[in-house]
Amino acid sequence: FLLRNTRRVIREAAKKSCFICYKMGASITCCETGCDRTFHLPCAPGGECVTQYFGAYRSFCWEHRPQQAVQARPSQDNTCSICLDTVEHTISYKTMACPACQDTRFHRHCIQRLALHAGIGFRCPCCLNQEPFMTEMLTMGIRLSKRAPSWESDQAVGPSDQRHGRCDAAMCLCPGGREHTEEEGPWQLWLCTSCAAEGTHRHCSSLESSSYSWECNIC
């Protein structure tokens, strides 16, 4: 049954075009009822789409993605609390905020990198709030790591002896599951060439056989 269902999903995806790059093979559909927008996982950041990396791994297009309910403050210092570069004046896909202290602003890509490095110690970089902050970031599409903080591990300064071995595509199409890998073919697992912290089966992200590299939506 699983194999038949997977084949059906693959056939349906082959007929759908990505609303961002307009190429065929879009396997991700917005979870909003009545919305038929489909897209590729690598195209998601360019289209400001959100994938929630927990539970059912739901995905949303730019129009229906979750929004932060944070009020702008006149005294807000419009700099990212992580990289100290300028952020937008309003909350958006690229500019996020802490739901606890509400004064903290940061770039989406900055907080995502912090989440991967901080692991189980992930919290607001300013007020240090953890529980509501982590819940909000998960809802907004930030992927968290269950590892110990990188600065408390030897892996922070040396090569890792454990290779990432899981497909992180929003919809994994592999009949063997997310952790199944093959040396070549559609179920070959590719790691992000920038961070190596995320992986995908070649078929799950519509990667052509002529491709030699892949970057996750974080990088």
What can you tell me about this protein's structure?
The chain has 3 domains: 50 residues, Zinc/RING finger domain, C3HC4 (zinc finger) (Herpes Virus-1, 2-Layer Sandwich); 85 residues, Herpes Virus-1 (2-Layer Sandwich), CATH 3.30.40; 53 residues, Zinc/RING finger domain, C3HC4 (zinc finger) (Herpes Virus-1, 2-Layer Sandwich), CATH 3.30.40.10. It is built from 3 helices and 8 strands. The chain starts with a helix and ends in an 18-residue tail after the last strand. The strands form 4 sheets. It has a two-stranded antiparallel ribbon with strand order 1-2. It has a two-stranded antiparallel ribbon with strand order 3-4. The protein is α+β, with helices and mostly antiparallel strands and 219 residues long. Helix content is 15%, strand content 9%. The radius of gyration is 18 Å and the shape is globular.
Number of strand elements: 8
Structural class: alpha+beta
Range of helix content: 10-25%
The mean pLDDT is 83
Largest sheet: 2 strands, antiparallel
Question: Could you give a short description of this structure?
Answer:
The protein has 219 residues and is α+β, with helices and mostly antiparallel strands. The chain has three domains: 50 residues, Herpes Virus-1 (2-Layer Sandwich), CATH 3.30.40; 85 residues, Herpes Virus-1; 53 residues, Herpes Virus-1. It starts with a helix and ends in an 18-residue tail after the last strand.
